[in-house]
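Q: what sequence does this backbone want?
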């Protein structure tokens, strides 16, 4: 059973691949990364990837810290 909404913490290669895969499978996806998406890669390339993910419906939160997650659905507190 696929999750209705998935929050992925970490914007490296694995997190980025997972968010795209789950979005393509039909889950709502929020990707939270403390820095820039794919921070080890060329910023021009990552801008294109970020735009593509957002076009697919992925919510990308860059430069964001997760302060707390838990409880009922949709309770994600970020800074």
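A:
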């Amino acid at each position: 059973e696929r999750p209705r909404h998935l929050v992925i913490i970490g914007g490296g290669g694995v997190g980025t691949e997972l968010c795209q895969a789950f979005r393509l499978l039909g889950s709502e996806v929020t990707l939270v990364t403390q820095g820039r998406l794919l921070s080890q890669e060329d910023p021009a390339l990552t801008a294109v990837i970020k735009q593509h993910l957002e076009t697919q419906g992925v919510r990308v939160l860059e430069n964001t810290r997760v302060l707390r997650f838990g409880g009922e659905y949709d309770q994600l507190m970020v800074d």
